[in-house]
## 1
Amino acid sequence: MTQQRTRQQYDEIAHYLRTAIREGHFQPGDELPSEAELTRTFTSSRGPVRQAMSTLRTEGLISSGRGRRTVVLDNVPTQSFDDIISFSQWCHNADIVPGQRTQWVTRRPAEKSLAASLQIPDGDPVVSVFRLRLMDDVPTMVERLNYPLEFGRHVLAFDTDSGSIYQELIDQGVDISRTSRTIDAIGANEDDAALLEVPVGTPLLRVRRRAFTGAGALIESSDDRYLPWKASFTMNSTRGNPSSMALTSNHLGEN
Amino acid sequence: MTQQRTRQQYDEIAHYLRTAIREGHFQPGDELPSEAELTRTFTSSRGPVRQAMSTLRTEGLISSGRGRRTVVLDNVPTQSFDDIISFSQWCHNADIVPGQRTQWVTRRPAEKSLAASLQIPDGDPVVSVFRLRLMDDVPTMVERLNYPLEFGRHVLAFDTDSGSIYQELIDQGVDISRTSRTIDAIGANEDDAALLEVPVGTPLLRVRRRAFTGAGALIESSDDRYLPWKASFTMNSTRGNPSSMALTSNHLGEN
DNA sequence: TCGCCAAACTTGTACATACATGTACTCATC
DNA sequence: GATGAGTACATGTATGTACAAGTTTGGCGA
């Protein structure tokens, strides 16, 4: 239940267009109303209209250019920051019932590599969670979460079988403002295989995520492994628009 | 070799800031010059400065907010549209020597599933390419490309062992303006395994890409499979900024 | 009928201004 | 020294204007 506050004009316009596209009032290939028309429709000036268009453009929903009318592209999926960070939230939006079976929650001193990935000194206390996540009661993903104690203490005080850790952190006033994800593939190890009910070595889609506060403090370092036939990532990019993704080469043979 | 044309102001500013961050003149955590300072530095108005900032924000390089100074985030990688669509271009930027060993190039009528993915009628002619790609002479990725004849004819007339098909299409006047990628994991089949010199079933990072013209015509449908210890995807997202990615669930057991 | 050109309209870029809204600092006061 | 009000300054939002640079349209002339 997000606060409703009075919506900004550009947000109003973006929401209208996005909804109209999703509901099919504008089909792929159709022309959107011109900026001049939209300013009249919303009794606004060109600024907010262009800001809304810019948003939809980076979401990959529309394409525009000098002289050309703005057209609707394929009806591609995009998700907001909140939808994509929380498995529970994501399931709700897809009309799926999320589930979780916590394997263990620990508090212990960080060994070297974990400390490095959390950007804390060796031996500092770390809270770790290991859960199996389910979609409609079907095993889908194994989740390994690690928190420095400052944020992990909220997790220790939380029943991890009851729902969304992300939502709990928000409620506790933790300001999650940015995430960085690295995606690759990895074979299921014995733990993964047992929980997901597949053979050892089954290819899994691995998403390693690090979440930060606005001030830059690291909140979480996680490792999620999805069954690839249950979930996949989609990304849109448009020439001339900024991109938030990169394909990176790993010279060193890490794992 | 892209045309240099006179750069726009906002592009000038964005380029300056991006370079300064990459080269470490602004460290993560540092404050960027205020908008007012930048307008003076570049003898510009606030519009272009804000447009540049907006670009860097969606690239995940900076964070800003009402009342707060704009700060540099971690020095995260991001790549432009051109860098990420062309394996050759990508390698060059990373100081890697790209290579390719073409297995075959064919022209044939599309069978049902391929026709569907190319959005053309069953039986329409399709040009397909199957290549092994190398980084510094080391097998890294297997590439399967499919083009409708309209665009594929340029590929047929091209020596696919000589370099970048993408660059060739550009040179032939094909306007590639948008791509959509789906990322998941899959085990190496016999062809993959033989070329990549790994056992059958080895987990691979699969990137299925579809490329479109500005008008919406489908140019290419491809399937790239990377050795996950050679390459991975990275994505940044910031709360409140538009996102161009989505995690999608596959209810149906496709492959 | 065909081809060319000018006009009208589209989106992109830039400038100037105003006010909203949040942060951070100064400084007087207790 | 701690506290709190006030102030200066930061970015966010909105308006209005102007021009640049493409595309589309329609009419005119050959």
## 2
Amino acid sequence: MDILEGSIAVRGRGKNKRKWIPVEDDELIKALVDVSLDPRWRSDGSFKNGYTSVLEARLAEKLPDSKISATPHIESRLRYFKTKYSALEQMLNKSGFTWDPTKKMIQCEKQQYETHCKNNPDAKGLYGVSFPYYDELSMVYSKDMATGEGAEDMTDVVQNLEEELVRVNANDEEDGEDMTSVETPRRSVDSTSSSSKKRKKEWKGKKTSSSDPLLDVFNEVSGDLKVATMLIGKMVQAMDREASNQEKARDEDPQQKLREKAINEVRRLEFTGSEVIKAAGVFVRMPDQMGMLFALPEPLRRKYIVDMLRDEAARRERERSK
DNA sequence: TTCTATAGATCGCCTGGCGC
DNA sequence: GCGCCAGGCGATCTATAGAA
């Protein structure tokens, strides 16, 4: 590489390249998740003007030597991530492709992958390579949870989770082990029910159930971090959406106000995007945690959240081992 | 050494929001 | 309604790394 990191060589197409290093990607994704959860910069599923400048400022703050600018660096990098994320999602939408949440990579037959790549060049380079930002990007770019029309409010989210679980149960029994004989219905690019089909596939073979459907939902969610991140992300998005839709009524809705306050507090304490989402999931499940958070003196709040997330992780682990 | 795939940057057009 | 601005996105170009 003859292009120094963050340095500018010569202007012109293909020139003036900079090499993104992992820590820069990490910070960019963290900032992107944060901004996507901030109703000031994102509402109704789309970003507002100037959000790339916010990302630039955030990166400048975290990595003062990087000299990454909104245009073209961040814009280009986000496009790259979005392309790869879309390609991944497209694959996961097909039968035979699954996501390994531990290795953070696609799992499928190589032959099948190569065939897919012939029609979808964007998917090249994703086989056997970990893509650590899929969870975060699914929160940011999943259209079904972002667009206004097909978007769900908090009640819908929970209700749909229950309904979806019932469908999964039924399909599990029907489908058996046959993952490739018949293609599952394709997810249309902008379908509002799209992610449910993908999740259906990922839920295969993981079922145990109790008599409480809602408890089942959260128990099952805990078994799969990717799905959990997506679904909790939906909740957070729904909360944000409600915040903007009911701006006038917000002052009269203490629960909603408390949720926003709690999430803002977690973000203020500089937790990562995925940690914020996990915390939001806990707040939805156990609203008392929010009250307790604010009851504590400020210096203790960070430790409280850390403990809360650790307990949540332990709870998930227990559920997994049941 | 040549070829090929990939990453990163740029260009140009479209669209939507916003102020006048 | 019009113009401006910024995001989205496809097309394209070039540098580079790795394979043949």
